[in-house]
Amino acid sequence: MDRIAIVGIDCTFPGAPDTGAYWDLLMRSGDGIGTVPEQRWAAREFHSPTPAEGRANTTQGGFIDDPDAFDNEFFTISPREAAAMDPQQRLLLQCSWRAVEDAGLAPHELAGSATGVFVGIMGNEWAQLHLTDYDHVTAQAGSGNGYCMTANRISYHLDLKGPSLAVDTACSSSLVAVHLAGNALLSGECDYAIAAGVNVAVTPALSIFYTQAGLSAPDGRCKPYSAQADGIGRGEGVGAVVLRRLEDALADGQQVYAVIRGTAVNQDGRSNGLTAPNRWAQQDVIGAAYRRAGVDPADIAFTEGHGTGTALGDMMEVAALGHHHAGRSGRPMALGSVKGNLGHTEGAAGIAGLIKVALALDHRTVPASRFAVKENERLALRKKGLRLLKAPLRLPRGTALAGLSSFGMGGTNAHAVLESAPPEAARPARESADGPTGIGTALFTLTAPAPEALRRNLNAQADALAARRAPAGAVGWTSHRVKTGHRYRFAVSAPDTDTLVGRLRAAAADPDLLARLTGVGGTARTAFLFTGQGSQYPRMTAGLYQESPLYRRFLDEADDALLPHTGRSVRDLILTGDEEVHLTRWAQPALFAVGWALGRTLGELGVEPDLLLGHSVGEYAAACLAGVFPLDDAARLIAARGELMQQLPDGGGMLAVLAGREELAERLAEEPEVGIAVVNGPRATVLSGDLMALQRIDKELDRDRIRTRMLRVSHAFHSYLMEPMLEKFAEVARDVGGVPRLPLYSTLYGRVLDDEPMDADYWVAHVRRPVLFADAAAQLLAAGPTHTVEVGPSPVLSSMIRKLPPPASGARPAAVAPVRGADSTGRDLADGLAELYRGGLTPRWEAAYEERERTPYRMMPYVFSDEHRYWARGGPVRARHDAPVPELPRPAAEKTPEKTAKTGKTTKTARPAEKTAGPAATGVLTLERPAPTDPVSEAVLEAIGQVGGYGTDELGPYLRLYEDLGFDSVMVMELKNRIEERLPALAALTVQDLLPRLASVGDLVDFLREHCATRPATEERTA
């Protein structure tokens, strides 16, 4: 048999709400047994001291906490449907989601794939209660019950297209489900498979049966293979594993808990009773599994037995194992059963055992068995080559093998052979063929469907990371791959895990901070702004160069391109802090190198510009990245520009004036040797020209109380004093340039270039003519970027943009600065990437991490809300036809005023369903209910509330019936009927008329109001 990898696990068992707690329970030989919760049934109603009285002999068992809790909003399931669902369906939905996340996958990524779902289940007590109460059987009761729906509902909500089936072979159900899942993977029916098992004791029926059959332990505890064994104790639980072909898991670098080498299933056939175990069939199924796995029984280190603690069951099982292992008396095989910790979890027993074995192989430690101190001497374990573990067993180095048995009460037996994961599992991905990667600081991202869900999961991640040391890079890398797909996007940078834990807790505790670090996605439209001369300083981007291999790679490339034309390393000039960086001959190529390297770094990270604008010399890097010319041509051009300007004679200057160009026109008319060099804003102008003339203008402006500042420059740029260099520069620029392939806003023309070449004529004029930054930037803002990204050594242009008048839309872009000044490091680049991610960009995360950091890490899976409870004490929840279900709680978070992330104002909100939001769910939904005097509105809200189980105070016009309220075709039919009861004028309305108008509650109200208006007023009345 080809091997199957277990790549994801999640579970909830008595005393163990998650996988980590389960392992802890096993390692401390913990006991998950307690008194039957009142929620299940009233203990006094069925308990009796003796079986003869017709009741059960114990009130003890293994029961999980809160089986009534269900985060229905996460799965877009209405309260009424959630109340009708078998709690086993609810538990499986949440458990499967978490198992997929544990496998290092975002569940949304499996949508549409041929992923199979195989569920083992033997209890259907919820259906027995609901479907026999004929007066209250609803459409939801049908889909909420039935074995098939436990698997089919997982496939439906995760949009999985592979095989989907439930298996009932009694106590062996979930191991048989694993067997079928493995075969489906090996046959190519699916590439991933979710195999699960579940059991919830809704009624005492099986407890009474066990008592009447003489199988029930009076203390409610299984005592496997022990001298104290006196019967079965019932247990509950849910578990799911994600399976994949081992070769595929290794190829993708997934973590592997353990490997299934072979499984086998058979039947007792006709033996000494339908429910009695058959030693020979068990012996055969174990041998068949060994053969399929290609292993020698002597190599099995331990076996997780069925181990119910019944006299006959333990005797038959030990005899069957002894047939294969009796020859190893000097090195007996360890034997145990998790039923000693949990009770017999029936349909979930096989998955409980499988998860125990997988965790033991992963930790390379086999937990001790409860009740192993006094073994049942009649079993003669040593003679059969077996022993019970009284202390944990440390597995030796190398491949470890284990067995797992699960036997059904009706005679269907299953056995599996597992081995430890191969050493090559989860190796780092290969280095990118393009060169080094990494930005020097890790980023952590997390998405959630609602703010409260985000807070809850931030706290959970912080607690999990604080309890277990982990490299920040691996945590961040995994978070991008697993914690995606929901509406609210959280992102924060952190150099190490301790810092990350602190930032997660701070954000969860502070609503304002959380709002700043969270976005609601959308489509990011970026504008790159390339800084010009004057922004340079010694050691600019040195911190980023030191920390980020990715940026280092591109700055080195720029330096290599410039070196033949400069004769000196611009990179070394920058990094050593040489003050000559302020000289024009060095400032211009240095700024180009930094701008080009930053732009290329951002591009590798998936931040591609939609719009570009460069301020004066910054336009060279912008043009290069827009495809106007290759790097070598750009380097030759910028180096010549700086050198030729440096050679010009002194005598010129530049003056910044806090006034508009129109205000200065009259003064400049009297000074022909001074002109406008730069227009940075409505009242931000730079003059350039003869120094003496500038000084005269400066005195006049000072007299008129107009603020000015003389700039520290070597020459009068963008003035007539540049003309002596133009001819030589034209020669260098000959045959250089082309048309930009991206929208580039020219500061020469003050507008976007429209298929116009940036050729020699352009670059020569660019030296002499003024920089029309304000004009170009205003046009760029009108194009509607969501973010401006300043590509340069300091955020100079971002502040200029903020001073410009807002565009007609009124929406200003968010400013992102990957480098913020002399002290900038990789964290600023990471923070910039985080801002863009929050705004809807999906970065190329692999470029943000070095090879050694791109390793998977098992993060805490999603933590679901437990605020919503769906259980009726003493009986089923009634889904009445004539009124909303009174037992259903209303989501407290939707009733509590809270500050919205967008405005900070307190408002009553209707929380969207916890799913990837569609176009309508782009902001907080305010409950603007139609006027209560409107009969149509009132009728629609009442009908929706009854069909979905919502209170009318929870319904608002912008809520979408399908995406937010969980409606489906069956509910739409009921909705139509209920609306017609209230609005008889709609009698002629068909479902086909209704379907196109179900986008939102408000759309439906508007349509029906219009429809009713066309009918005689006397026909309108409300129920």
TrEMBL record:
Organism in which the protein naturally occurs: Streptomyces flaveus
Q: Which GO terms describe its biological process?
A: antibiotic biosynthetic process; fatty acid biosynthetic process
The family database entries (SMART domains) matched by this protein are listed as:
PKS_AT, PKS_KS
Q: Lineage, please?
A: Bacteria, Bacillati, Actinomycetota, Actinomycetes, Kitasatosporales
- One Gene Ontology term of the molecular function aspect: fatty acid synthase activity
The answer to whether keyword Acyltransferase applies is yes
**What region holds the Ketosynthase family 3 (KS3) domain?**
1-420
Keyword field: Acyltransferase, Antibiotic biosynthesis, Phosphopantetheine, Phosphoprotein, Transferase
Q: Which domain of life is it from?
A: Bacteria
According to UniProt, the name of this protein is Polyketide synthase
The record's listing under InterPro entries reads: Ac_transferase_dom_sf (IPR001227), ACP-like_sf (IPR036736), Acyl_transferase_dom (IPR014043), Acyl_Trfase/lysoPLipase (IPR016035), Ketoacyl_synth_AS (IPR018201), Ketoacyl_synth_C (IPR014031), Ketoacyl_synth_N (IPR014030), Malonyl_transacylase_ACP-bd (IPR016036)
Pfam families recorded for this chain? Answer: Acyl_transf_1 (PF00698), KAsynt_C_assoc (PF16197), ketoacyl-synt (PF00109), Ketoacyl-synt_C (PF02801), PP-binding (PF00550)
Output compositional bias ranges, type Basic and acidic residues: 892-901
